Amino acid sequence: xxxxxxxxxxxxxxxxxxxxxxxxxxxxxxxxxxxxxxxxxxxxxxxxxxxxxxxxxxxxxxxxxxxxxxxxxxxxxxxxxxxxxxxxxxxxxxxxxxxxxxxxxxxxxxxxxxxxxxxxxxxxxxxxxxxxxxxxxxxxxxxxxxxxxxxxxxxxxxxxxxxxxxxxxxxxxxxxxxxxxxxxxxxxxxxxxxxxxxxxxxxxxxxxxxxxxxxxxxxxxxxxxxxxxxxxxxxxxxxxxxxxxxxxxxxxxxxxxxxxxxxxxxxxxxx
Length: 271
Fold this sequence. Notes:
The chain is α/β, with parallel strands linked by helices. The protein is 42% helix and 18% strand. The protein has helices at residues 5-8, 17-25, 30-43, 61-68, 81-94, 112-115, 133-141, 161-172, 176-196, 210-219, 228-236; strands at 51-55, 73-78, 100-104, 118-124, 144-155, 240-246, 260-267.
C-alpha cells in the first residue's frame, strides 16, 4: 500500500477494528482473562515490575493481562478511538489506578523522546494492518529499552495473500448485511475445517472469539504478510537477537486465510 504518513495515521483509511473489539469486550470473562494471561506469559515469562507498551490495544485484554501479571506500568495505545474507549473501560474495572494509561496514537508517531522506552513492547496482530508494516515494525522497535523485549505477531505469507488483500478491501466497504452473510459462511467453513483437523469445537484461543476474529480477518485492511526469515534479517539489522519464533501452520495454501506467526526479540546490550 503506497500512502503518505498522514494517510496512514488517518483512522478512516483503516477497517473499523475498534467497533469489532468493543462488541467483543462484552464477552470477556474470567476464562478469557486467564487465557490472555497465558498467551502473554508464554511470550514474556518475566513481566513482573516491568514497563509494558501495548501497541494496538484493541479491547485492552492484553494490557489487562500485563497488569494482572504484575507489570509495573502499562501504556496502551491504539489508532482507533473506539478501541481506546474500550481499553479504558476494561482497565478501569480492574487495573490499579496510576499503573496504566490508554491513549489514541499511531505507531508512526511514537517517539522515545516523548514516551521513553519500555522493558516490553507488545504488538500482537497489529503492525501488518498499518499500511506500511516494515516501517511500523521499525517505529515500534525504537520504543524497546536497553536489553528490552519486543514481542509481536504478523500474518504468515501464503500464495493467496494477494487475493485476500482484494477480499479485505471489498469486505471493508460492503454493507453490514453483506458482511454478515460472508462472515457466517466463513465461520461455518472454519468450524468445519477445525473438526476435520481434529481440533474439536473449542474456540477459546488467547481469550478470543471466532466470530469477532472472523470479522477482524475478513475486513482487516490494510493487509500485509511476511516470513520468519525476512523478520529475522530485519530485526538483526536493528540490533536485536531472536528469542522465540513460533510459526503458524498454513493449511490449503491459505485458502481459508492465514494465522499469525509469533516473534520475540531482545535488544542486544550495547558494546
